[in-house]
Structure formats: structure tokens, C-alpha cells
Write a structure and sequence with these properties.
The chain is an alpha+beta fold. It has a domain at about 1-180: Regulatory protein AraC (Jelly Rolls). The chain has helices spanning about 1-15, 100-110, 135-145, 150-170, 175-180, 185-200, 205-215, 215-230, 230-250, 255-260, 265-280, 280-290, and strands at about 25-30, 35-40, 45-50, 50-55, 60-65, 70, 75-85, 90-95, 125-130. The protein has a five-stranded antiparallel β-sheet with strand order 1-8-3-6-9. A four-stranded antiparallel β-sheet has the order 2-7-4-5. The longest helix has 20 residues, at about 150-170. Keywords: DNA-binding, Transcription, Transcription regulation.
């Protein structure tokens, strides 16, 4: 019942650029399986109504399909692929961006015992669960507001808060709640992730990043691995290679220069790691990108 209406609403309001009239709400419609593509997740809730998606984060693989949702609590480098989508039954899904400030506000308003206790360890940065009827009902009511412009400005923020509350009190609540806790392990790792992304071309000492994020070195290693499924150095390499691919789309004849811009002093190492990541050496992949439209970052959607 819920999925039928959800599919109808998503199909009706899907746009090529995935945007909607409600801030922070995205709709995807994909009519064919694509090759695996790298992207960043953002901090987002993704609910699938039709089709399926597979994501790889480090050595972890996540699959989610109709009636399931995925939560990404940290902006992480993933490789995503639609595994079930065709013109007759396109993949359909909704994405809702998650704001730490909104989580923090709800935590302050919640009474004692309204949400389960959040443990001290950092949860995985990505989690998949079955969507409850209450969550699906709230998502559908949010989408109905796309047909009700006079009610949208007042009611959409209220329904988004309800969706966030359903997440916070649901199976993946521990992950979502840590988004709003300034001193949570997830928040510490998020600070480290943000710093590495902003300085990906620079070498760094793990001890210095641990200090910046407010953790001991041992706790930093443990929590960073739990959230990202990678070591800090592996994470930096993923960011470097993704940035290199974006640069090659516009500078296909400057493979050596692109490698240097993202932090590789050794062209052979750059070519070797690029090929391992994307299945082709930089020059060949750049030629393909020059001939094709650069793939849109699909993140965790649909």
C-alpha cells in the first residue's frame, strides 16, 4: 500500500536534475543499470520505492531495495551501482539531506528516555534497514506536499522533523543521534574526514589529525575505521583519486599535471593506483570521459 503510492509520487515529480520544490529533498529516477561509479554520499537518508542499489565503502558492501532505507551519517567516498532498473520499471527513490543542527534540536526537545541511550563507540558511517510503516507514511506525506504549494512552506518543515524523529528513534537511531552530539565519536571522526577532504593533496601525520579531531591516536584509528571502513591514509587516497577523475574530465591531456595537483609526485604510482580504482589507466579513462557525459554523482540514491 505504502510503496504503491510512494512509487506514484516519485514518478510524477522526478526531474532530470533530481531537485524538488522542497529544500533538501531529492528524487531520482533511473531507467538502466549503470557501471559502478565513485561519488560522495553526503549526510542523507535514502528511501527506495522501486529498483535496487549497491554501494561499496572500503571492504563493506551495502544493498538496499524497495521498502528499505539507507542512512549515511558522514560524507564518505563510495562506489555505487544501480542493479535493478529498466525503462518499464525504473529505479525510484527519495533522498533527504540530514542536518546535524536539526538532530541536535530534536535531542534537546526529547524527554528523558524518549530515545535509546547512545553508546560511546562510533557506528558505521552507513547503515541499511527496513523502513517502518510510520516512516514510509511520513515520507509519503512529505511528497504529497509537492502537489500542495500553499501548504508546503508551513507543513514541509514539520514533516521533515517527523521523519528525522522516526529515524532517531528507530533501528539506526544511534547513528543518526550521534550526528547531533558535538562530542560524539562520530562527530570527532566527521571533523577528521572534513579536514582530510579539504587538505587531500597534502601529506599528513595521523597523530596530527587525531589531535585535531580531539581523540587519542588509538581511539582515532579505531573509530575512523569503524565509521569509514578505511584507514585515514586509505581514505585520503580515495579522495585523491576521485578528485583526479573529475579533473581529468576537463584536462584529459594533462595526466601528469592532474596527478601532481591531487598529491602524487610519482606518475607511475598515480597511474597504478588510478587503474586499480577505476579499471583503466588515467589516459584511457580520460579519453572515455572526453567522449561521454561525465556521470552525475549518484551518492546513496535512489
Amino acid at each position: 500500500m505504502y510503496l504503491e503510492e510512494l512509487r506514484t509520487l516519485l514518478a510524477r515529480h522526478a526531474r532530470p536534475d533530481w531537485t524538488t520544490a522542497i529544500d533538501g529533498v531529492l528524487i531520482s529516477k533511473v531507467d538502466r543499470p549503470d557501471p559502478p561509479e565513485p561519488s560522495m554520499t553526503g549526510t542523507v537518508l535514502a528511501v527506495i520505492a522501486q529498483g535496487s542499489k549497491r554501494l561499496a565503502l572500503g571492504d563493506r558492501v551495502y544493498e538496499y531495495g524497495p521498502g528499505q532505507y539507507l542512512v549515511a551519517s558522514v560524507d564518505l567516498p563510495v562506489t555505487g551501482q544501480f542493479t535493478q532498473a529498466d525503462p518499464e520499471r525504473p529505479a525510484l527513490g527519495l533522498g533527504l539531506m540530514l542536518e546535524p543542527s536539526a538532530v541536535a534540536e530534536l535531542l534537546l526537545e526529547a524527554g528523558p528516555g524518549d530515545t535509546p541511550r547512545t553508546g560511546g563507540g562510533a557506528p558505521s558511517g552507513i547503515a541499511v534497514s527496513d523502513a517502518s510503516p510510520a516512516l514510509l507514511d511520513a515520507v509519503i506525506r512529505l511528497l504529497r506536499l509537492l502537489d500542495e504549494p500553499h501548504d508546503r512552506a508551513v507543513l514541509a518543515p514539520m514533516v521533515k522533523r517527523e521523519i528525522l524523529w522516526r529515524l532517531m528513534s528507530g533501528e539506526q537511531g544511534a547513528t543518526v543521534r550521534q550526528l547531533g552530539l558535538a562530542d560524539s565519536s562520530l562527530s570527532h571522526v566527521s571533523r577528521a574526514v572534513r579536514w582530510i577532504r579539504e587538505h587531500y593533496a597534502q601529506p599528513f601525520r595521523v597523530e596530527d589529525v587525531a589531535r585535531r579531531s580531539g581523540m587519542s591516536v588509538s581511539a582515532f584509528y579505531r573509530n575512523f575505521q569503524a565509521v569509514t571502513a578505511m584507514s585515514p591514509i586509505q581514505f585520503q587516497k580515495q579522495i585523491r583519486l576521485q578528485e583526479a577523475r573529475l579533473l581529468l574530465a576537463t584536462h584529459p591531456n594533462d595526466v601528469t599535471g592532474v596527478g601532481q595537483r591531487v598529491g602524487y609526485d610519482n606518475p607511475s604510482q598515480f597511474s597504478r593506483e588510478y587503474r586499480r580504482q577505476f579499471g583503466a589507466p588515467p589516459s584511457r579513462d580520460a579519453a572515455r570521459l572526453r567522449g561521454d557525459t561525465v556521470p552525475a554523482p549518484v551518492g546513496v540514491l535512489p
